[in-house]
Specification:
159 residues, 6-stranded antiparallel sheet, 6 strands, 25% helix
Length: 159
């Protein structure tokens, strides 16, 4: 059984229209904040138990840049039903609570994951989002996500 979607997550983008997908321009890294509880089928990883809040760290360095985040927002609201990446399964079953962008950063996903672990985040699911990465995982479990993000040495933009 998976988490039920919050009314905010199913009614639209939970952080308001100011940063709707049309405003996602540029390249860099992104962090998605997701709450999930229960057993969720995550592609080739199989059934995974979730219980709490998670940060997913991803790269938007390719040709579309932050347009990748637009696709994830559509998955979280049910507008996109295609499941290709691990994060798609989690977004479809959990509640997307918000996120941050790090435009123009020179950091790699693994470096950002390492910084967040150094600040108290815990690796959540081995291999999650890391099939093409040297990192163990791109998914971290957190207790106080906003506090953790504000402790970063970078200036992430809130979605």
């Amino acid at each position: 059984m998976s988490t039920r979607r919050s009314p905010a997550a199913t009614a639209g983008y939970p952080w308001g229209k100011r940063s709707s997908p049309g405003h996602l321009k540029g390249k860099g890294l992104y962090i998605l904040l997701i709450e999930a509880r229960g057993l969720i089928a995550v592609g080739k990883l199989g059934q995974v138990r979730f219980d709490g809040k998670y940060l997913y760290i991803g790269s938007a360095g390719g040709p579309g840049g932050f347009q990748r985040v637009k696709r994830y927002l559509a998955t979280a609201t049910g507008e996109n039903r295609r499941r290709r990446w691990h994060i798609d399964y989690l977004l479809a079953s959990g509640a997307l609570l918000g996120g941050w962008l790090l435009p123009g950063t020179k950091l790699s996903e693994c470096e950002l994951v390492g910084e967040l672990i150094g600040l108290g985040a815990r690796p959540a699911v081995p291999g999650f989002g890391a099939s093409d990465s040297p990192c163990e995982t791109h998914l971290l479990q957190v207790e106080e996500p906003e506090k953790l993000i504000s402790a970063l040495g970078h200036q992430p933009l809130k979605l």
